[in-house]
């Protein structure tokens, strides 16, 4: 207990905490992210309706406007969709799906990119040239196009009977495999600088192996830029997943994300049912904005040139 209190006291008095508490953008971004995380985590308890339970749906309540408009019902704050589902409840579950996909895909791309960047920067030679040429080729295509290609190939290879069951993991793989390049190039550059420093030379002199030097000594010194990229990449992953879902290639309708809800709402937008697409769209916009605000602060505070 004493150790925990001492750690919290050091964290409170650190430069990072000082900068965080004096940055309105970081405070707002962190507060919104915490709120969204709570909504996603406790969605089954916060939602007034289980949108995946047909017995809980009433088609007579379909396409009702938000509660503050004429014809709205107090129980449906954001209105209902064409199936009579409470839009707020669907958004809570959709937010959970979007965050799970984005975070998992970001972790996947980070692991791949950091590993390849370490090997490329430390080994050099042909391995370095090969990895960087692959990265250059991938950079010549837009990220969404690479994700579409990977998603399409997976749907072609996998049997149709299991495609819906693994659809979320296909989207995770598509986004993760399309975003590793920025990690690899950044880590490669930092690794090439770090490997020539005295602490690495000292580790070689005392007989430490290459793998231990790479992962125990070099890796901790390249994490700062990786954390910044990962934070900002979560927002891009959310947008990529929303784009794939909007195009009908993302998560299945049985596990709708915010992108799926926007696509479904777009189909009835010109019928006057604007809330079905506007509400998830605003939710998505605020989420990505909060991530970018927090990521910009983290980039500034971890950049030694700005201190």
Automatic annotation (TrEMBL):
Pfam families named in the record: BPD_transp_1, OppC_N
Start and end residues of each ABC transmembrane type-1 domain: 95-295
User: Where does this one sit in the cell?
Assistant: Cell membrane
According to the UniProt record, one GO cellular component term is: plasma membrane
**Can you tell me where the transmembrane regions are?**
26-47, 97-122, 134-154, 166-183, 214-239, 274-298
| Main localisation | membrane
Give the source's domain of life in one word: Bacteria
Q: Which UniProt keywords apply?
A: Cell membrane, Membrane, Transmembrane, Transmembrane helix, Transport
Q: Does the keyword Ion transport apply?
A: no
Membrane topology of this protein: Multi-pass membrane protein
Extract one GO BP annotation from the record: transmembrane transport
What does the sequence similarity comment in the record state about its family?
A: Belongs to the binding-protein-dependent transport system permease family.
Protein name, entry field: Binding-protein-dependent transport systems inner membrane component
From which organism does this entry originate?
Answer: Verminephrobacter eiseniae (strain EF01-2)
Lineage runs: Bacteria, Pseudomonadati, Pseudomonadota, Betaproteobacteria, Burkholderiales
